[in-house]
Structures are given as structure tokens and as C-alpha cells.
């Protein structure tokens, strides 16, 4: 039992949370197993019948139908319960799995096969909405900070499991029957969702925070805010870039593996490798990169890495390099863009932090609900114009990609420069919101340290609150200098924190300062804290 408690504590699970976390984790694994199987089957069947130049049409289809499906889901969710909507969607997915399996086997498969990537795009969008809506209701902010890393790792675990098992499944049953395996996994996730809905009805029945009034509030500056426009522009270019990378990748895969079973096996193993590396990135690398190098450097990692691949691909393709080399460069580029997604997501979440709460919510809503599907459609239209209209081949697409990545890099540089300034403004107006949501990086820590030099006591105390929440290890080195701050309320705050945190190493600095202290209140507090910390040390 003691060993079990130690394991739960290591995973961030507190007493009384184990059963809920286990059920949600099981649901998430099966949920994403279904998603990964459908992705593998959809692209393998599509590419075995159509070439990669046809994919842009499907991107436009995803843009239209995913936006429509999301709008319908959100509209219906206001009329039906939180659990009723996901259960209904999962039941509908079961019916569509059966419909595709029967239709592709017995009907003329051409048009139905063409819809598969569009279908996956819609399903993937709904899966993300369902998963995050469920987590948002079942766990509060403090629990989310501890548990979301564990729960989101379920996607990588599902990807790994499916990636390395699918070649065996394809060999035994064929690519088409992956729909049946996906239906079995979906049945398991549906069963767990029903159990969660029954056992935790009270949590799920609590109404979500009403932000409708906020969404309708008029700030007048959202689209005139240079910082927000830079975020929108970089996200749009990001979508263009990753879909160009995907298109080049699938063109190379299609050329190398013409058989649908070979395609399914390669795609599944590829995503299995992506799952392994992504899990390692999420657990051990992303946070350290942000802490060590800061937001500015992290924003540049993906476009710079992809630029190196694009330049190498374009040069080798221009000078008739070996086909195998082109294939593996395309695979590497796709692998990089997928595994760096965890780092990119963390960086983007940091970019929103300096915005006032209402602007932050609206900006995220526009990015996730509008720019994402619109960006996919823009990528599809651009690819169609370049490939079908102008007749560009995959090597020439790589040259266009280089320009897109250059724009991405330039916008990342601009945002990296703008972020510290916006963060300083947010600190001065004390509008960072709940510090439990913040994730520290080197540049934000530097800004917080600079804010401690402010002559305004409120700004200094607020910066100390944020610093204590996101980087408590920085406090012992920052507090001694603040004992000399001209505002007595700052000196009192420093003494209070030193006593609460048991920072006995501050006793010499407090002792030196108390001799010259002009405020009787601060002098009394200094003597009391000095005695308390001295007794604790003894």
C-alpha cells in the first residue's frame, strides 16, 4: 500500500483522485487509439488510390466541414448535457465506422475513399474538443496543473501502441479492417465514458464558467493590437508550413510504397516513432528548453530545423540526388514538425500570458476556432494553385516552403522581441491572471527580476507573487536586495515571505539592515523574523 501511495504521489495523484484519474486515462488511451487507427487507415487507403497532389482538395474539405462540425457541436452543447454530447458523438462515430467499412467493401470506393482524410480531419477536431471539455469539467485548475501532463501523455502512449501493432494487424486482417479494430477501441472508450458520467455526475453537471458576456464585450483593440496580430500571422504561417511539409512527406511515401498495406504499415510505424519521441519531449525536454533558453529561442527551433530540411531537400532534388535521400529528408522533416509540437504548444501558451484576461480568451478562441480551419483551407488552396495550376513538382514546392519558413522565422523573431515588453506591461498593470496557469521560461524570469527594481511597491509585490508561484527557487537570491527598497510595505512583504518559507539564510541580511531601519513597524518585524528564523535554524 505504501508503495502504491508513493507511485501515485510520483505521478502527481493525490488521495481520493486515483479512481477518476485511472478512468479518464483509460478513456483517453482508447479514445486516441481510435483516432490513430482511423488516421492510418484513411491516409493509406487514400494514397493507394489518389496521388499526393489531390490532398490539397481534402485540406479545403477539412477546413469547411471541421468548422461546420465544431459549430454544430458547440450549438448543440448549449442544449444537451456535457456527457450527452460526447456520448452521442461517439455513438455516431461507431455508425460511420461501420458505414465506411461496408461502403468501401461493397460500393464503388472512389468518391468514398476521397472523403477519408476529410472525415479524419472532422473526427480529429471533435476528438480534441471532447477530450479537453471533459478534462476541463472533471478537474479544477490546481488539479490540472498536476495531472494534465499525465493525462495528455495518453495520446502518445496510444500512438506508440497503435504504431507498432498496426503492421501485424494489417498483415492479419488488411488495412480496411482497421475500421473494425477502431470500432472495438471506440466501444471501450464509450463504455468508460458512460462509467465516468454515472460516477461523477455531480462534477459534470456543474455549469461551465459563463464567458458569453465576456465574448460580447467590446474592447475595440483586438485586431488593432500589434502583438495579437503577430500571433495570428505566425499561427497562419505555421499552418501553411506544416501542411506543405505534410504534402511533401506524403508525396514521398506514396512514391515509395504504392501498396495500401505497405502504406498503412509504414504510416503506423512512423507515428509509433513519433509517439515515443513526443512522449520523451513532453516529459523531459520541452519544459527544460523553455527554462534554459527562453521563449525567443524556442519559437525559432521548429522553423529553423524545417528550413534546414527544406534547403537540403530542394538542393538534392535540383541536382538529381538519390530518391532514397529525398525520402528520408522528407520523413525527418515530418518527424521534426510532429515531435516539436509539444514545445511549440508550450511556447504559444506563453505568448498569450501577457494579454488581459478577456483579450487572452478571445485571441485563443479565434486561433483555435477560426484561424486553424481557415489556415488549413488556405494551405489547400495554395497547394492546388501551385501544383495543379502552375504545375510545380515536389522539389519546387520545397523552394516555396523555404520562403514560408523564412516568414515564420521572421515572425518568431518579432514575437520573441515583443513578448518581454508585453510581459513587463502586464506586470505593471497586474493582469497576468491566475499565476497557477503560468509556465516559466528564461525570458519571463528575467522580466520578473527586472520588475523587482520598480519603485512602485504594488508592482514589486505582484512580481514577487508571480515569481514565488512559477519559480520559487529564484526567491532566496532576490529577497536580500529588496530589504533595501525605499517602500516599507515591500520590506515588510520580504520579511513575511522569509518567515513563511523558512529562509534562514536571510538572517545575516536582516540583521545588517535592522540597525539602519527607519520604520518602527519594519524594525519590529525584522527582530521577530530574525528570532524566528534563528530558532528554526538552531
What is the rounded distance between the termini?
36 Å
Let me know the largest β-sheet: none
- Given helix and strand content, the structural type is mainly alpha
Give the strand tally.
0
The pLDDT mean sits at 83
Any idea what the radius of gyration is? 27 Å
Taken in chain order, the helices and strands follow as HHHHHHHHHHHHHHHHHHHHHH
Strand content: under 5%
Number of helices: 22
Q: Give start-end ranges of low-pLDDT stretches.
A: 207-220
What proportion of the residues is helical, as a percent range?
over 70%
Shape: globular
What's the helix and strand layout?
Layout: H1 2-10, H2 18-49, H3 55-77, H4 84-106, H5 109-114, H6 116-138, H7 141-173, H8 178-199, H9 201-205, H10 212-216, H11 226-256, H12 260-318, H13 323-339, H14 341-352, H15 357-389, H16 394-429, H17 442-451, H18 457-470, H19 475-482, H20 488-501, H21 507-514, H22 520-537
Helix pairs in contact: 2-6, 2-7, 2-8, 2-12, 3-6, 3-15, 4-8, 7-12, 11-13, 11-15, 11-16, 12-13, 12-14, 12-16, 16-17, 17-18, 19-20, 20-22, 21-22
Structural features, described:
The structure is a single chain. With 538 residues, this protein is mostly helical. It has helices at residues 2-10, 18-49, 55-77, 84-106, 109-114, 116-138, 141-173, 178-199, 201-205, 212-216, 226-256, 260-318, 323-339, 341-352, 357-389, 394-429, 442-451, 457-470, 475-482, 488-501, 507-514, 520-537. The longest helix has 59 residues, at 260-318. The relative contact order is 0.10. Mean pLDDT is 83; it is low at 207-220.
Amino acid at each position: 500500500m505504501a508503495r502504491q501511495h508513493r507511485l501515485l504521489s510520483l505521478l502527481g495523484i493525490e488521495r481520493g483522485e486515483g479512481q477518476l484519474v485511472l478512468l479518464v486515462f483509460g478513456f483517453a488511451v482508447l479514445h486516441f487509439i481510435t483516432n490513430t487507427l482511423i488516421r492510418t487507415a484513411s491516409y493509406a487507403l487514400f494514397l493507394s488510390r489518389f496521388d499526393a497532389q489531390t490532398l490539397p482538395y481534402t485540406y479545403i474539405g477539412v477546413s469547411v466541414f471541421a468548422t461546420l462540425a465544431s459549430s454544430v457541436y458547440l450549438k448543440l452543447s448549449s442544449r444537451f448535457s456535457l456527457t450527452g454530447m460526447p456520448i452521442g458523438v461517439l455513438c455516431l462515430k461507431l455508425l460511420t465506422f461501420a458505414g465506411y467499412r461496408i461502403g468501401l467493401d461493397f460500393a464503388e470506393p472512389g468518391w468514398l475513399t476521397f472523403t477519408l482524410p476529410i472525415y479524419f480531419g472532422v473526427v480529429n477536431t471533435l476528438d480534441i474538443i471532447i477530450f479537453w471539455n471533459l478534462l476541463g469539467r472533471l478537474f479544477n485548475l490546481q488539479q490540472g496543473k498536476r495531472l494534465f501532463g499525465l493525462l495528455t501523455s495518453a495520446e502518445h502512449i496510444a500512438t506508440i501502441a497503435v504504431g507498432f501493432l498496426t503492421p501485424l494487424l494489417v498483415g492479419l486482417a488488411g488495412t480496411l479492417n482497421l475500421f473494425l479494430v477502431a470500432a472495438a477501441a471506440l466501444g471501450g472508450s464509450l463504455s468508460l465514458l458512460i462509467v465516468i458520467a454515472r460516477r461523477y455526475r455531480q462534477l459534470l453537471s456543474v455549469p461551465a464558467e459563463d464567458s458569453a458576456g465576456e465574448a460580447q464585450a467590446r474592447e475595440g483593440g483586438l485586431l488593432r493590437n500589434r502583438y495579437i496580430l503577430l500571433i495570428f500571422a505566425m499561427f497562419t504561417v505555421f499552418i501553411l508550413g506544416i501542411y506543405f511539409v505534410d504534402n511533401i512527406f506524403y508525396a514521398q511515401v506514396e512514391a515509395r510504397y504504392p501498396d495500401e498495406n505497405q502504406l498503412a504499415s509504414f504510416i503506423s510505424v512512423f507515428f509509433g516513432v513519433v509517439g515515443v519521441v513526443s512522449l520523451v519531449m513532453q516529459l523531459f525536454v520541452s519544459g527544460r528548453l523553455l527554462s534554459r533558453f527562453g521563449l525567443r529561442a524556442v519559437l525559432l527551433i521548429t522553423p529553423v530545423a524545417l528550413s534546414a530540411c527544406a534547403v537540403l531537400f530542394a538542393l538534392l532534388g535540383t541536382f538529381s540526388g538519390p530518391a532514397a535521400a529525398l525520402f528520408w529528408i522528407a520523413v525527418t522533416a515530418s518527424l521534426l514538425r510532429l515531435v516539436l509540437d509539444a514545445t511549440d504548444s508550450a511556447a504559444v501558451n506563453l505568448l498569450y500570458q501577457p494579454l488581459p484576461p478577456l483579450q487572452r480568451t478571445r485571441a485563443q478562441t479565434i486561433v483555435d476556432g477560426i484561424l486553424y480551419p481557415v489556415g488549413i483551407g488556405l494551405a489547400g488552396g495554395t497547394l492546388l494553385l501551385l501544383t495543379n495550376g502552375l504545375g510545380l513538382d515536389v522539389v519546387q514546392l520545397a523552394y516555396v516552403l523555404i520562403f514560408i519558413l523564412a516568414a515564420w522565422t521572421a515572425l518568431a523573431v518579432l514575437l520573441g522581441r515583443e513578448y518581454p515588453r508585453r510581459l513587463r506591461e502586464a506586470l505593471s498593470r497586474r493582469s497576468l491572471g491566475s499565476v497557477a496557469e503560468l509556465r516559466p521560461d528564461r525570458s519571463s524570469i528575467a522580466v520578473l527580476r527586472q520588475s523587482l527594481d520598480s519603485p512602485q511597491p504594488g508592482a514589486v509585490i505582484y512580481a514577487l507573487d508571480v515569481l514565488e508561484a512559477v519559480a520559487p527557487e529564484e526567491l532566496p537570491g532576490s529577497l536580500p536586495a529588496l530589504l533595501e527598497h525605499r517602500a516599507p510595505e515591500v520590506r515588510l512583504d520580504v520579511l513575511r515571505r522569509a518567515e513563511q518559507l523558512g529562509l534562514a539564510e536571510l538572517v545575516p541580511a536582516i540583521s545588517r539592515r535592522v540597525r539602519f531601519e527607519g520604520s518602527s513597524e519594519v524594525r519590529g518585524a525584522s527582530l521577530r523574523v530574525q528570532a524566528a528564523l534563528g530558532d528554526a535554524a538552531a
